[in-house]
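In response to reviewer comment 3 from the previous cycle, which asked for concrete evidence that the modeling workflow produces usable outputs, we include below a single protein chain processed end to end. The sequence was submitted unchanged, and the resulting structure tokens are shown without manual editing.
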Amino acid sequence: MTLWQADFYHHFPQREIETNLWQLLICDQKGNIIVESSCPQSQVNSQWLIEQIQSNLSKSYPEAIAVFRPQSLSLFSLMGQALGIKILPTRRTDVLKRLLLDKYYSPLYNPLKLEASPPQSLPENLWGKTWRFASFPAGEIIHYFRQQPIPILSIDSQDDPLSLGLPSHHRISGIVIEGDRKAMILARWLAENHPYSLNFIPTEIGQSGGLILESGLSDRWVLVTFEDPEMATSAQQYEQRKQENKGLHFLLVQPDDTGITYSGFWLLSSLDNLG
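The workflow returned the following structure tokens.
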């Protein structure tokens, strides 16, 4: 499938701020820029997007365009309907996001930052028995889990640690949830909500905190909370490893700790927080 990645938004460049200009950027999965244009805010509509696609492309349109920003999703959806292009709402647009960081990032502005909504409580009927931090060698994590009979497995080829230049001995950090009889129910719910990242949010005193699951385009869920200095230290180490491993981390759901049966595995990549 021919898949492009696109963004349409008003950014704040490092030069003089031009708040009335919206920037359109469309690229392919290799990072080649297909369309790059801008327009005043007064011209922002789906028809302008349609004209940009039609005037800049002499070849056939892609089968799908991935869009991560909620503010521009409706515009792209209308454009897609008019041109027969499928629009995929997903945060997994890392190639595009790297281009946006190169173009617009500054210490005062992160072009990937989305407006955060208050996290919701995870439905009580989903939570299992226990959870823990864990890690897995970068050189083995993909091969190992692809060899297991896991009903729900989510590993994107672009997240291969070795292809990203990580040493094979690096430990990829993650969270393991032992759900007992609810393991498969939780795994199915996660699959429906499209996990994107798991982030530690500390309290002001740094001795407690929680893990926030980012999913969909802008959904946030309180996965766990804790008031334990030792656990907070482990959570800080978890975040440090994410930074060292280019945002890679994982979420594993299993019935118990025997290592015989798994319910769901997600290899996650949190580029948004790396800047």
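The helical segments are 46-56, 70-83, 94-104, 141-146, 183-193, 229-244. We consider this sufficient to address the reviewer's concern, and the full set will be provided in the supplementary archive.
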